[in-house]
Amino acid sequence: MKTHVMELKAGDRLREDTFNGAGLHILPKGTVIQTEEIALLIRQSIDYVDIDPRDGGSEEAYSSNVPDSLGFSQELRRNFDKTIQAFQAIFLEALTTGKFNQSMVDEHLLPTLEALDDRKNITTLLYMLSNDDVNIYNHSLQVGLLSYYIATWLGYSREECHEISKAGYLHDIGKSRVRQSIKNKTELQDEELEEMRRHTHYGYEIIRESIKDNKTIALAALQHHEYEDGSGYPMGIGRTEIHPYSQIVAVANAYVEMTTSPRRQPHDSLITVLRKVYELGFGKLNERAVQALTQNLLPNFIGKRVQLSNGENATIVYNNPTDIFKPLVKVDDFFRDLAREREIEIVEIFFE
Question: Which residues does UniProt assign to the signal peptide (predicted)?
Fold first, then answer.
């Protein structure tokens, strides 16, 4: 099917040989499309290519997979999809030119944030964040949205929340300069790991070139892998040197990374992820941002159905104040206090 290059997705396969306007052969039939191929097509001023029909295996925007029962309006779904597509365009522009048009960020991200402003119960957002097979475009939107919520909970002004969300949205833009072969790998050799870690520097440079009047957004790209105890990268700086925006984005990024997983691989339940992020708040991640995340998410789990590690289905009825990650649950007509029965874990939360 004939497809515009900006609508190509990772995994698409060329149906025919592709030539540029001068008749030069650019890509052969059967090429599996990745970021580098899209960038090459853009550089060659090729607007459309023929690809094989998609069988559903290519990565789609996750918002279209969220059930109607979760209360996502069609307008909000469209906002998610458009914002993801916009980041793909921003990512490819950064890859081909070394910078991007910042107006595209505001044009697509801000309407999504405004649509979320009146959504106080974010369990539906959590469901969205925990979807499998998330690519870098989806991931970037997720980190941007969660950064926005954390900033809101911490009492930042509306304008500051928008800036922090933008920082989260753009935090991984530097990966546009990292080789696709490295980004696709789950285990990296030392030299490959070094190249991957350079995405923080690349991101800083790209954002500074694109948004010249706002250094803080660029700092989030540079610092979102730094730890307060100095054990992070790329500079190994400590708590007092990490910008507050970067601290928030780091928490959001850690949470989103833990709630998503490679294709067909299981990931932890949301409560388990929250506990892991909570533990990182003691020396690694900013404690205030971590506390804001956990204190605002845990109450939303009350009333949710869960599956326990012993195979039982239960409902969360109360969060134990002495152990917030071991709630009281109801199984049929009796209760289990997971703070006492510590061998039992919540393995899945159902969002219906």
Answer: none
- R_g of the chain, CA atoms, integer Å: 21
Q: What is the pLDDT of residues 170-179, one digit of tens each?
A: 999 999 999 8
Q: Is the pLDDT of residue 312 over 70?
A: yes
What does the DSSP assignment read for 176-237?
GGS-HHHHT-SS--HHHHHHHHTHHHHHHHHHHHH-TT-HHHHHHHHHTT--TBS-SSSS--
Same domain, 118 and 244: yes
**Distance from C-alpha of 292 to C-alpha of 311, rounded to nearest angstrom:** 32
Q: Read off the pLDDT of residues 220-246 as tens digits, 9 standing for 90 and up.
A: 999 999 999 999 999 999 999 999 999
Model pTM score: 0.83
Can you state the angle between helices 102-116 and 136-153, rounded to 10 degrees? 60
Cis bond upstream, residue 53 (ω within 30): no
Are residue 113 and residue 221 in the same domain, yes or no?
yes
Q: Are 206 and 173 in contact (CB under 8 A)?
A: yes
306 within a domain of the structure (yes/no): yes
